Amino acid sequence: MAAPSPAPHAEFDAIVVGAGLAGLVAAAELVDAGKRVAILDQEPEANLGGQAWWSFGGLFLVGSPEQRRLGVHDSLELAREDWLGTAGFDRDDDEWGRRWAEAYLQFAAGEKRAWLREKGIRFFSVVGWAERGGGMAIGHGNSVPRFHITWGTGPGVVAPFAAKVRAGEAAGLVTLQFRHRVDGLVVEGGAVVGVRGAVLAPDDAQRGAPSNREVIGEFELRAPAVVVASGGIGGNHDLVRAAWPERLGTPPATMLSGVPAHVDGRMLGIAEASGARLVNGDRMWHYTEGIQNHDPIWPLHGIRILPGPSSLWFDATGRRLPAPLFPGFDTLGTLEHLAKTGHDHSWFVLTQRIIEKEFALSGSEQNPDLTNKDLRLLAERLGSGAPAPVEAFKERGADFVVADTMPELFDGMRRLSPEGLLDTANIEREIVARDREVDHEFSKDLQLTAVRGARTYRGDKLIRVAPPHRILDPKAGPLIAVKLHILTRKSLGGIQTGLDSRALGADGRPVPGLYAVGEAAGFGGGGVHGYRALEGTFLGGCLFTGRAAGRAIAGRATS
């Protein structure tokens, strides 16, 4: 039997649709203000925290003590230049995205770190350098390292907000209703005054696993404020393909999912039907370094490799990717390049020495040392050898080929490639030519130049970038090839919102009673990132928009 639903006209101050990070932050702010909140989610209780729980826990900060200790000089002005150069705002619909971007930059360079530390959140001492850019100073990318990994990864980010919500539940302020699927918003007199939907049958599925859709009842709840915190569309490949823009080439025929199937985009259409304006649906953020999970939890479960810059990258036919499409430099540029080849996969070729130093896997479950705050395991990461999760994929992953010689490596790659597609002779030419460039300090190979430049940053030299060496050096072996797939992840567009997270309608005016936060709102304004993200800004967007919504509903200032 399902848990009982609250009475149809229960007196809540707000209803939050979605129990992910953005929804929890909004609810936590409301609890702090003594407000009564109902949190609804179609999934079982095991999924509290949503996609943030699965994340690596990276957060974008500007001018932090962690940066300064590593000799990184950052500023709000530099971060603003990087953000605007990356976003490429060029539409009338971008006005609110621009405003959110400026507000978020002020937050990231100001109170964000102190606000999180008050909640017990701490950061790993080495700051990562994600999205290193497209090779021009005024173009896209991070000029300096800004990716701060939470000590505790995604679960560590979720924990204080989940704890606040649980405390609110114990105090009678919060009603948590899992297995409650919202099918519509209740609109009266042009204002959103509640939600209605179906009660789904109980399900003991583990976090992230598919759950049943058996309907056993109906519900209706009312409140003067409804917050849509339902996430994006990454688990619905049909919606991803339907939104795929021409500028990114042909939509992939096959993709892996970086999010569970319940990230289905349902609430976007429901909000639009009730008056909200959806914008920038053609902007998206998917990864090109996806590998099949050898121990999957959800359908087509993929994991992203977070690569250092040394692996050689080849397309499905064996052509080396052009500069500056190096590992870790330009996510969207690489996606666009590969999509236009007409093939859904590409290849890394590297050595054991590179995988030990440069391969990390995205996700809390793939980083037990950081997630569990285990100093012993962390010491192993800093020592010799690859992290245990990486070695597990190398040994068990369907996309890995390990060999002592190039002919053996190419035989393995051909087994994973459509017949006759892979030009291994060209791959060999590229490897041999690249190895010649390693033997002297001068080079026309821009990837080698980038690797040498990266090692001038202490964080990269310590744990992220291997010393340049010949791929064919037997001492660096064995050789490794990894087949890479497109991995769905984030929507960059969504419900357009003002700076108080109120949903805007087609006329640009707020829809009374309706708010949107997190990915459902394009992380702010229907598209705070524009076309591209600087990374560490997705969790941050959930925090910032959820905070804004909670404070606005509670009648509190946002800073």
Global outline = globular
Give the termini separation. 44 Å
Strand content: 15-25%
Secondary structure category: alpha+beta
**Helix count from the secondary structure assignment:** 19
- Average pLDDT level: 95
Say how many strands there are.
21
Runs in which pLDDT lies below 50 for 5 or more consecutive residues are 1-8
Note the main sheet: 8 strands, mixed
Q: How much helical structure, as a percent, in the residues?
A: 25-40%
Question: Measured on Cα atoms, how large is the radius of gyration?
Answer: 23 Å
Keywords: Flavoprotein, Oxidoreductase
InterPro entries: FAD-dep_OxRdtase_2_FAD-bd (IPR003953), FAD/NAD-bd_sf (IPR036188), KsdD_DH (IPR014614), Succ_DH/fumarate_Rdtase_cat_sf (IPR027477)
Organism: Agromyces aurantiacus
Domain FAD-dependent oxidoreductase 2 FAD-binding: 13-539
What does this structure look like?
The chain has helices at 21-32, 50-54, 65-69, 76-87, 95-109, 112-118, 153-170, 237-243, 266-273, 331-339, 352-358, 368-371, 375-382, 388-396, 406-415, 424-438, 446-454, 458-463, 538-554; strands spanning 14-17, 37-41, 58-60, 147-149, 174-178, 180-188, 191-200, 215-222, 226-228, 256-257, 278-279, 284-292, 302-306, 312-315, 345-351, 360-361, 400-403, 479-491, 494-495, 502-504, 510-516. 33% of the residues lie in helices and 20% in strands. Strands 10, 12, 13, 14, 15, 16, 17 and 18 form an eight-stranded mixed beta sheet that branches. It contains 19 helices and 21 strands. With 559 residues, it is of the alpha+beta class. This is FAD-binding dehydrogenase. InterPro entries: FAD-dep_OxRdtase_2_FAD-bd, FAD/NAD-bd_sf, KsdD_DH, Succ_DH/fumarate_Rdtase_cat_sf. Residues 13-539 form the FAD-dependent oxidoreductase 2 FAD-binding domain. Keywords: Flavoprotein, Oxidoreductase.
